[in-house]
Write a structure and sequence with these properties.
The structure is a homodimer of 411-residue chains.
Chain A (H helix, E strand, L loop, with lengths): L1 H11 L3 H9 L3 E4 L8 E4 L5 E6 L8 H13 L4 E4 L6 H11 L4 E3 L1 H13 L7 H13 L4 E4 L5 H9 L9 H13 L4 H4 L1 H11 L2 E4 L14 H19 L4 E5 L8 H11 L5 E4 L11 H15 L3 E3 L12 H21 L5 H13 L3 H7 L3 H11 L15 H6 L2
Parallel strand pairs in A: 3-4, 3-10, 4-5, 5-6, 6-7, 7-8, 8-9, 9-10
Antiparallel strand pairs in A: 1-2
Helix pairs in contact in A: 3-4, 3-14, 5-6, 6-10, 7-11, 12-13, 13-14, 15-16, 16-17
């Protein structure tokens, strides 16, 4: 691990000793490398990272389609991917993704337990606790670097839900199926009850445990309610137990959240979870923009990143509407990277302001080659410029001779 | 005006008396209706509004193209448009836009003075102060509802620029040409020196004066620097003079700003300008994402709106790269509306949370017709859903049978 931390410290331009301290205190997590890729760290004082969710669904289960999405995510500069497959041969697609990925791959093993139980016995509620744990083990065997497990969905949280009804109830797939199972079987969440076993599996396979927020709010109306906060308190305790057992963990966060609550969400996570790395799905700052949820999410994620979030799960334009395709994936990754970078600028992460300044100087100099090179998506920037502009044009077609940079340079 | 305020109070679900007070104190501005359209108010306690910039350039001067962009902006729900034409027959295109617009039309008359001087005498610096004032009058005659005039670009501001050099200098078109003129002619800004005449013209034609920020930062590195703040102090004094002379005014703001500075930018404007309506161009929270500047801007605009900004100028995907087309305009308006709405949610504007809740309930019920109807862009939402999903599908192709809403409803 020490060699790896050294390398990461170098890549991130941070002091090795600081990184070591953060790592030892659980404030930085290191995802192991996939067989053909590199390891990655998330957390305190590091660049904000971005994850892209890919994976089949029951409706669209096409391995090649998913591998194309993987490729799109990697080209767009994602830091990790999660395989959330729920359709077709789950193991086959997972192995192909792990094999083909140059970045750490995460997963949500409970999906496999749900799908298997439904396929074998016709009902997801029929899955048994051993099968839930076996699914985690299976993902470990397949080289997964981090697993989302919804250990924090407890009877206590569900009673909070019952006493404080929501507009949208449970919107986490893992969370909703676990809740159904708990109610159908009148039992506590096995992933909570047998948490030590979950930890041991993670330890055995060197997987980081991502403590999933099964009760995250999925509507602006439900943001930061009793059930969400109750679950976060539980998750904080689970995080401490993970560290005590020598397992790395990160914390997952919402969801749909109004803009003003986002800094409080981050603060609450940092306080209740001993400054553990915070991994956010969104947050989406409004519910009303399906088709633009990469934007509603980019807004929330940027504010979260500026406030201290460490790891951003992208949201694509097809969120709430359908399974994303490769282009959705590309746009989702880039939108999330923009948010992460906006946060890095605020937190003055090494290299962040320098990048913006390079772009600004290129603009000032009307150096178009350099502007394209410095763009987060050079291909897109070039294609938009080319749409209206001959190659050797000194300005752009927005202002032409009225270019302010040109006017200013003539002063 | 009283009938109009009554109507606006009703549309905005605010108390008529509160609106009247805000209006009388200059904290709300009312843009007069174009000949075939409706009036609009911006400011305190009102819904955040959105503006779309359209207009020809020296490189692309096609009236029909601009009318298509106007149509795209209106269909996407813009609250105002600004005609920033600098190419072709400026007056002809302006008159057509004013004629065709159902929302108030703004403009930047100095562009016309610059273009005219360059055409007549070969040099923009040759424009004379009378021509600058004449251009404003001309726009008044043509039915423009609000005009951006860069009265705050003063010798004092320019000396701040000189003493505190920027990466990107002046990025405002009007600002940079005025600065050139001032330096070439060794004179104070005529729009500052003859400010009372500017006010009288606005009064004569019932135009709102939008006090342009000619020295706004155009790079993250330049944000909130001496020149910007110096100009804002001047603008605050000009705002007071406008009110004393019975002219409505609003204040324009940056630009390129790091996320953490945005609330301070809004606070500073509100403090220095007696809570005048604040009209922001962006802010863009990073420089590095040409092609995605509707997103970098949506992030900044949402944070600004939540912090108290009143009026958001959109930014399109073609910003920094070329003149936008109709589709860029559509996307720009929708991104800005999302930001405004995210702000309205935080500020609990009447109807804002209700809209989100309608969408959330439709999601919970898997009522797809209602989800599409409630979407900010129903056409886009429907087309994304249809891409992967048969019409009568109960869930979407993201989760299929693993739909959390479905699972939750079965608990």
């Amino acid at each position: 691990m020490n060699e790896l931390l050294k390398q990461i410290a170098q890549e991130e331009s941070v002091q090795e000793l600081d990184l070591l301290t953060s790592f030892q205190n659980g404030r930085v997590a290191v995802f192991k490398a996939p067989p053909n890729g590199r390891a990655l760290a998330v957390g305190e004082n590091l660049r904000v990272k971005v994850n892209a969710n890919i994976g089949t669904s029951g409706d669209i289960a096409d391995e090649d389609f998913e591998l194309k999405k993987l490729e799109a995510a990697l080209s767009a500069g994602t830091d990790t991917v999660m395989d959330l497959s729920t359709g077709g041969n789950l193991r086959a697609v997972r192995r192909k993704i792990v094999e083909a990925s140059s970045v750490p791959v995460g997963s949500v093993p409970i999906y496999e337990a749900i799908v298997d139980a439904a396929r074998r016995r016709g009902a997801a509620d029929s899955m048994n606790p051993d099968e839930m744990l076996d699914a985690i083990r299976l993902h470990g065997e397949d080289g997964i670097s981090f697993v989302t497990v919804h250990c924090g969905v407890t009877l206590s949280g569900l009673s909070q839900l019952q006493n404080n009804p929501r507009v949208c109830g449970i919107v986490s797939r893992g969370g909703s199926f676990l809740a159904r199972w708990m109610r159908a079987n009148k039992k506590e969440n096995p992933l909570f009850e047998r948490y030590d076993e979950v930890l041991d599996i993670c330890k055995q396979y060197g997987m980081v445990l991502s403590l999933g927020d099964g009760l995250r709010p999925g509507a602006i109306a439900d943001s930061m309610d009793q059930a969400q906060v109750d679950e976060l308190v539980t998750i904080g305790q689970l995080f401490r137990r993970a560290r005590q057992r020598g397992v790395q963990a990160i914390i997952e966060g919402p969801g749909h959240v109004t803009l003003d609550q986002i800094p409080a969400q981050v603060m609450m996570e940092k306080r209740l979870c001993d400054d553990a790395p915070f991994y956010l799905l969104g947050p989406l700052v409004t519910d009303i923009a399906p088709g633009f949820d990469h934007i509603t999410s980019a807004i929330g994620a940027a504010v979260a990143a500026a406030a201290g979030a460490d790891f951003l799960c992208y949201v694509t334009p097809s969120e709430h509407l359908g399974l994303p395709d490769a282009d959705d994936v590309r746009i989702g990754v880039l939108a999330a990277r923009i948010s992460g970078h906006a946060g890095d600028l605020v937190r003055r992460r090494p290299g962040a302001r320098e990048w913006d300044e390079k772009m600004s100087r290129a603009r000032k100099d009307r150096n178009w080659g350099e502007q394209i090179r410095q763009a987060i998506d050079p291909g897109l920037a070039l294609s938009i410029r080319r749409k209206t502009c001959p190659e050797d044009h000194e300005t752009c077609t927005m202002c032409g001779d009225l270019c302010a940079y040109k006017a200013d340079s003539l002063i």
